[in-house]
Amino acid sequence: MTHRVAVIGDALIDIVDGRQIPGGAAFNVAVGLAKLGADVDLITMLADDEPGRALLRHAAEHGVRVHATDAPHGTATATATRVGESMEYVFNEAGRKRFFDVASKAAVIAEADCVVVSCVPLESDAQTEALQALQRMPIPFVLDANPRPGYLRDNDPATVAAFAANLRRLAAAATMLKLSDEDTRLLFELEPHDAAEQLLAAGLEVALVTEGPAGASIRTASLHEQRPIAHMDAPIVDTIGAGDATNATLALALLDEQPWGEALERAMLVAAATCRAPGGELQLP
Question: Does the N-terminal or the C-terminal CB of the chain have fewer CB atoms within 10 Å?
């Protein structure tokens, strides 16, 4: 069965070692879902400028329908730098001031079998309330917290606290929430599995915890499955998009009602393959 998925969130141009690569967490998830066989609509901010047109062309190549909301500051870009086993990002004004007008795309969302949200400004009460309205729909709601220091005013305490509080509000009614170990330490000053347990107790159905080279886990009220990252002989090029590839693979597994252990193993293979190519586009092993 082909699932129709509405993805909401950021699309931008990643600038990596001087190369310009289509990316953004939600864009990566949308393209990844399409490569995995889903029918995908992407609701994002794009301007009529060269970065925006490049993103539209790339989305069209993969069959992703893009529904652009207003982008008064242009299309977002992010300059990525490898720091240890992670990447750090510096965003332009368009990225820092992102906001996704989901109400204007209600007709598109109403056709979806699932909503996947990634890298949206949860420090904004208005953005959070717009997403809460979608949670009243009788379809799965998947959320990737994806806070980044460059979006959170370099970890301004008040901004981080607002983001964390609104994340808790959405998580309580979410079907699946993706959290990385970096996310939980930044937002809650907690280790990832401690944060997952708290959020599950508050109403979250499924917690997807990613821990970089240590792999990923699925936690529910009654289940804990963990898998290591898959080994591949080819060298790692960068880690951009590994979490997005994991999120796309497991969102589709949720819709297909796959056993979580099998789905995690598949996701770790896909994430490992994604790390063997430049940029954030999901790669099939």
Answer: N
Pairing state of beta strands 39-45 and 65-69? parallel
Taking every pair of Cα atoms in the chain, the longest distance, rounded to a whole number of angstroms, is 49
Domain residue spans in the chain?
4-274
Q: What is the pLDDT at residue 86? A: 63
Locate all alpha helices (DSSP H) within the chain, ordered by sequence. Answer: 25-35, 50-61, 93-96, 106-110, 125-134, 157-171, 181-188, 192-201, 242-256, 260-274
CATH architecture of structural domain 4-274: 3-Layer(aba) Sandwich (3.40)
Question: Can you name the residues that pair with 281 across neighbouring β-strands?
Answer: none
Report the distance separating Cα 100 and Cα 44, nearest Å: 6
Query: What's the CA gap between 215 and 17, in Å, rounded?
Result: 26
Distance of alpha carbon 88 from alpha carbon 85, whole angstroms: 10
- pLDDT of residue 2 exceeding 80, the answer is yes
Rounded CA gap, 178 and 117, in Å? 10
Copy the structure tokens of residue 128: 């959070």
Residue 212 neighbours by CB distance under 10 Å: 17
What pLDDT digit, counting tens, does each position of 177-206 carry?
Answer: 999 999 999 999 999 999 999 999 999 999
**pLDDT tens digits for range 82-137:** 766 566 778 999 999 999 999 999 999 999 999 999 999 999 999 999 999 999 99
Residue 172 and residue 189: Cα distance in Å, rounded?
A: 19
**Tokens standing for residue 203:** 């109403």
Report the chain's C-alpha Rg in angstroms: 17
Crossing angle of helices 181-188/192-201, nearest 10°?
70
As a whole number, the mean pLDDT across the chain is 94
Compute CA distances 244 → 7, 72, 258, 264, 278, whole Å: 12, 26, 19, 14, 14
